[in-house]
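Researcher: If only I could read C-alpha cells as easily as an amino acid sequence. Walk me, if you will, through where the backbone shape changes along the chain. I have put the entry right below:
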Amino acid sequence: MVGRVNSALQLRRSRTEQSVIPSPPTPTSCQGAEFQWDLGSPHLTYPFPIHDPATRFKPGYNLLSVDPHMSLIRVQSLRCSWSPTFESISVPCSSCQTLGTFVDVVKDHAAKAVEKLDRLSLSHNQLLQKLDAVEKQAQVERLKHLNTTRALDSLRTHEATWHALLDLVGNHDIPGLHRIFKIAKRRSWSTEKLLERLRDAFDGSYHVRGYSDMELDLATAIYELM
C-alpha cells in the first residue's frame, strides 16, 4: 500500500516538472562602450566641463562613468539604439562601438597647452596649469608696477632736487659757483651731492680749491705785466 502511494507521488511530481516552461533569458540594453584613457587618472585629466551644454567644445557622446584604477571611461553615443540583446553580458551597439575617434579628439584636447583653450573646457590639471600661468603673469605685472612706482618716485625726488638747486642758484650768490659745477662734472656728482655742496658753499662751510681757467689766465697776465 505504501509503495503504491509513493509511486503515485513520484508520477505526479514528474508530470508537474514536465509542465514547467523555462523562462527566457532577461534582455539587457546597450550600456555604452569602454575606452582606455591613457592620460592618467580621469578624475584629474578628463575635461568634464565639455559635457555642459554651454561649452563650445562638443565631445559627440555622453560620459557614463570613469574607472580611475583602470583608467577607463565608459561613453555612450548620442545615437545609441539601446536595442535589447539576449547576450549574457552587455554588448555595445554599433553606434557606441565607433566612438573611439571621438574619444581620441577629446584626448588631444585634454593634452593641449591651456593658453588658447576655453577655460570652460579644461580638465582639473589644465585648470591648475591655467592658474599657475595666471599667477606668474600677475607676479610679472606686480613687479612691473613696483618698478614703475619706484622709478616715478625717483623722478619726483630728482625733480624736487633740481627745483631746490635752481632756487638756490637763482636767488643767491654762490662763491665759486662755476668751479663747483666743473668739479661736479669731472667727479660725476649726483644732483643731490651738487645741491649739498652748493648749500655748503653758500653757508661758508665749503671752500672750492683750485682756480678756473679764466682766473689762471688773469693771474698770468698780471704776472707778466709786473
User: Anything to note?
Assistant: The first helix runs from residue 2 to 19. The chain is about 55% helix and 10% strand.
